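Q: What structure does this chain adopt?
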Amino acid sequence: MLVVIVLIVLLGLVFDFTNGFHDTANAIATSVSTRALSPRAAVLLAGTMNLIGAMTFTGVAKTIGGKIADPLKIPHGTIVVLCALVAAIFWNLFTWYFGIPSSSSHALIGGLTGAVIGAAGFHAVDLAGFTSIIEALITSPICAFVLGFAIMWAFRAVFGWRSPHRVNRVFRVLQCFSAAAQAFMHGTNDSQKTMGVITFALIAGGYQHTMHVPLWVKTLCAIAMGVGTASGGWRIIKTVGSKIIKIEPINGFASDLTSSIIIFGFTLFKLPVSSTHVISSAIMGTGAAKRARGVHWNVAGRILVAWLVTIPMSGLIAAGLTKLALL
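A:
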């Protein structure tokens, strides 16, 4: 059992590492695209703020670890977590390779749900808890689109008559702060998902009996995500930062501000969100407010398809792995 737990922790850290270079790229995509920050400075800033954010909250971790299923009632709970992490890591790497900004959050939630079903059947899933998580994942990008549209519309009303060069120069400076805030908010939500899964495994393995997240789990997950941030992500930056709309500093700042507000708001309610969904939707919202025809809706459609298939695909992979592991 101890060997399995150690393997789960290592895989959890690998997942957070892949989450770092997969999802955190979204947090700095707009500031890199507008040249508000150099790639090196943006990565260093995002890695640092992610680590700080990951150490700050644990509410989302408790939601992930306790609302999808009861770890005390799942047979072979440690095997379930192991297979969930392998499936989520595989999907992260697959979508990263093709530059698709799919959701690490969806991959992990889908993987854990699929693994639970593979081990104990559909009845083992806490339907109410799972539904609340899905509702948060669905409503958060809608809120981001609407809020992004509103903020950009307000910015255009206030700054539209000023010199575009001067406006862009001011907002390029402000983007340094908004990118830092967005990376911090990403850490407060995304890193907690892995913390929750590891805690789920600790309970299933009999090493603890509550959803309290140990300090060593928080620290290791935060460091893994910070290191992952510094190691890659440029494929995703290219898609999010340039292929959805042509980003200028004013709508880059509006997108960052929108994402930070939405992610932090859901974190306060202990609900997981997909930073990929939120950031991409915020960019679409700000782009639509500026010029709807300027949004590359075909790229947005590809991203939407990736969003829709991530949970079922990672779930199927995890369920299959669990069935094989328990033969």
